[in-house]
UniProtKB/TrEMBL annotation, chain A:
Gene3D superfamilies: STAS domain. Residues 1-112 form the STAS domain. This is STAS domain-containing protein. PROSITE patterns: STAS. It comes from Tumebacillus lacus. SUPFAM superfamilies: SpoIIaa-like. It comes from the Bacteria. It holds the Pfam family STAS.
TrEMBL record, chain B:
The keyword Acyltransferase does not apply. The lineage of its organism: Bacteria, Bacillati, Bacillota, Bacilli, Bacillales. Keywords: Phosphoprotein. This is STAS domain-containing protein. It comes from the Bacteria. Residues 161-272 form the STAS domain. InterPro entries: Bact_StressResp_Reg (IPR051932), STAS_dom (IPR002645), STAS_dom_sf (IPR036513). SUPFAM superfamilies: SpoIIaa-like. CDD domains: STAS_RsbR_RsbS_like (cd07041).
Length: 119, 296
């Protein structure tokens, strides 16, 4: 499954779909990193509002993406996590430390914009 | 041989049994009389006696037939036990009433003419088993009914116990009251997250003034709630930590980590309002900067 990675100003936007297999997760991770290098964007926004299940693998991949993006000079915001997913993540002990989480894409975008200017 | 037959002939004398039964209840000023009224009891007693001859002695008929034969009495029990419970009665009030009937019938079995010793024994055994079955059914209904009430109350308590209040645009407050156990903590967490997402509120104040004991278990659950709220995109401030609670937490070595804590709900609210203002300024600053960049 090909996941579109959109660019808006200086931010890359990725929307994750409902069912993502482990292989797809790894290829998405790869694609995102390649795009960051190409575009030299300083912000990455991952929207997971349609995802209703995240397992430990997917949780780890999200953490890795954020960490790798940070090494490449890009901040990560994850938006729209559903309550059920959040509860599962907490139960699994996945805290997504170092990742900014926001309720809506709009708020995530705002945060990334503020980060960029270093305000 | 149907030992129940002799009982049926005895019970057929409905009028006199009911009269005797009611007279005895009235004589001892039975509680049920006062609860439900003597007229109602008289009617119900007659209904029971009409149903009585249809019963079979447990174990003597096929299971299906046995169930069918007790259907009428089941319905009767359901009605009267519900009514008794609604008026504050319990098995302590109902059972003596029912067992009084058994005593009356036993007495009549004994006085029945043309009874051999064997018939007498068989008749009384049959009577015993029928009443055992009725008791059993009654307790089933009673316990079921009790359980329903308890479940309904538990639900009501859960709903009452963790109201999520919108105190400001984008700010929710969660005043916690009473002991927090695992089940409640789970409900509170789910409820809070649902409200956060529904109202799109990025700020939450969790006030624990009303929580009597905060031990490691409760603290862990609160931390989990804060973490889950952060994941959906809301920042939590914890308020109302009383001196004794602060002492226990430190003594237990519980680390609340990065959770922002404030003394009072008011302090928590003003902290959040300040954060919001700060955020707006940053956003405005970022906007002007982007504007400047695009101009130059």
């Amino acid at each position: 499954m090909q996941v579109p990675i959109l660019r808006m100003n200086d931010v890359l936007i990725v929307t994750l779909g409902e069912d993502i297999t482990d292989e797809e997760a790894i290829s998405i991770k790869h694609d995102i990193l390649v795009r960051i290098k190409e575009t030299e964007c300083e912000g990455l926004l991952i929207d997971i509002s349609v995802v209703d299940l995240i397992d430990s693998f997917m949780g780890r991949v999200l953490n890795e993406i954020a960490e790798m993006a940070r090494l490449m000079g890009s901040r990560t915001a994850i938006t729209g996590m559903s309550p059920q997913v959040a509860i599962t993540m907490v139960e699994l002990g996945l805290k997504l430390e170092g990742v900014y989480t926001a309720l809506t894409v709009e708020r995530g975008f705002e945060w990334l914009k503020n980060q960029k200017t270093g305000a | 041989m149907d030992h129940f037959k002799s009982l049926r002939t005895i019970v057929a004398d409905r009028e006199s049994i009911v009269t005797e039964w009611m007279a005895q209840l009235a004589a001892e000023r039975h509680e049920l009389h006062e609860l439900l009224g003597s007229e109602y009891i008289r009617q119900q007693s007659e209904t029971l006696l009409i149903e009585f001859p249809r019963l079979t002695v447990p174990g003597t008929a096929s299971p299906d037939r046995e169930r069918d034969s007790y259907e009428g009495v089941s319905r009767w029990l359901q009605n009267i036990s519900l009514r008794t419970a609604q008026h504050g009665g319990s098995p302590h009030t109902f059972m003596p009433y029912l067992l009084r009937l058994k005593a009356i019938i036993s007495e009549r079995v004994k006085d029945h003419p043309e009874m051999t010793m064997q018939d007498l024994y068989d008749g009384l055994t049959a009577l015993d088993r029928v009443f055992d079955r009725i008791n059993h059914l009654y307790y089933d209904f009673y316990l079921n009914r009790r359980e329903q009430v308890i479940k309904a109350q538990a639900l009501a308590i859960q709903e009452l116990s963790a109201p999520v209040i919108q105190v400001w645009n984008g700010i929710l407050a969660l005043p916690l009251i009473g002991a927090i156990d695992t089940q409640r903590a789970k409900g509170i967490m789910e409820n809070l997250l649902r409200e956060v997402v529904r109202t799109k509120s990025p700020h939450v104040i969790i006030d624990i003034t009303g929580v009597p004991i905060v031990d490691t278990g409760v603290a862990e659950r609160l931390i989990k709630t804060v973490e889950a709220a952060r994941l959906v995109g809301a920042e939590c401030v914890m308020t109302g930590i009383r001196p004794e609670v602060a002492q226990t937490l430190v003594m237990l070595g519980v680390n609340l980590g990065d959770i922002v804590t404030k003394a009072t709900l008011q302090a928590g609210l003003s902290y959040i309002l300040q954060r919001i203002r700060q955020g707006e300024q940053e956003a405005a600053f970022a906007d002007t900067k982007i504007l400047e960049e695009s101009v130059s």
